[in-house]
């Protein structure tokens, strides 16, 4: 079976719990903290591996203890780390996230080693051996994503991007993308359509189909819309669960979605499985 190559970020996450997230100039007394494996790339790689497909990861960490921890988590989840570069003299990526009493969060990311991924390595045939899908996000320099996507297209490998966090994609990168997955905020920024229900999520997806062959728009508590450039558009309501935390839900969705696509599921089946996996994730107490 073909594997997924994830090119992306690795972050050592510091999670802080508080009654509410601080406003400008406000100090909030927290109720707890924890330390977790993170980075959209890393989280999506682990999610895909847990969903039953082979996964390779290409990225970068420092020589610090955080980097060793990040590599160990990937390896313990059967993710191939041969192409994760360990760079001396720079810290591994990290983030600090504040979780409020309702389970929502805000985060600050410091990319560090993730900004040092070599963009000129993608002509290496070993990277692409047995790969059927390339999975990207927006937490590494666009030149890395662009060069990876160009090489994948040369090799007839499907390119999927979770365009998060929201930022403008160059026309050259857009031209390489087969599958775009975005949340409501990212869909709004890319389409100009405010996503506040499944109807508007569907409208945003169809507009984005003018550029991308397959589009998936996750709309939080409303559900998910998905469409193809032939004009077909469908949606699924959100699974009804008790929310514990939204942290990592999008990455869980991506891992299951891409794994399902790699396993031969249809677009609708893949979205449905990912929708259910994300619902379980947000209702789970660690």
From TrEMBL:
<feature type="domain" description="Carbohydrate kinase PfkB">
    <location>
        <begin position="1"/>
        <end position="285"/>
    </location>
</feature>
<keyword id="KW-0479">Metal-binding</keyword>
<keyword id="KW-0547">Nucleotide-binding</keyword>
<dbReference type="Pfam" id="PF00294">
    <property type="entry name" value="PfkB"/>
</dbReference>
<protein>
    <submittedName>
        <fullName>PfkB domain protein</fullName>
    </submittedName>
</protein>
<dbReference type="GO" id="GO:0006014">
    <property type="term" value="P:D-ribose metabolic process"/>
</dbReference>
<keyword id="KW-0067">ATP-binding</keyword>
<keyword id="KW-0119">Carbohydrate metabolism</keyword>
<keyword id="KW-0418">Kinase</keyword>
<dbReference type="GO" id="GO:0046872">
    <property type="term" value="F:metal ion binding"/>
</dbReference>
<dbReference type="InterPro" id="IPR011611">
    <property type="entry name" value="PfkB_dom"/>
</dbReference>
<keyword id="KW-0460">Magnesium</keyword>
<dbReference type="InterPro" id="IPR029056">
    <property type="entry name" value="Ribokinase-like"/>
</dbReference>
<keyword id="KW-0630">Potassium</keyword>
<keyword id="KW-0808">Transferase</keyword>
<dbReference type="InterPro" id="IPR002139">
    <property type="entry name" value="Ribo/fructo_kinase"/>
</dbReference>
<dbReference type="InterPro" id="IPR011877">
    <property type="entry name" value="Ribokinase"/>
</dbReference>
<dbReference type="GO" id="GO:0004747">
    <property type="term" value="F:ribokinase activity"/>
</dbReference>
<dbReference type="GO" id="GO:0005524">
    <property type="term" value="F:ATP binding"/>
</dbReference>
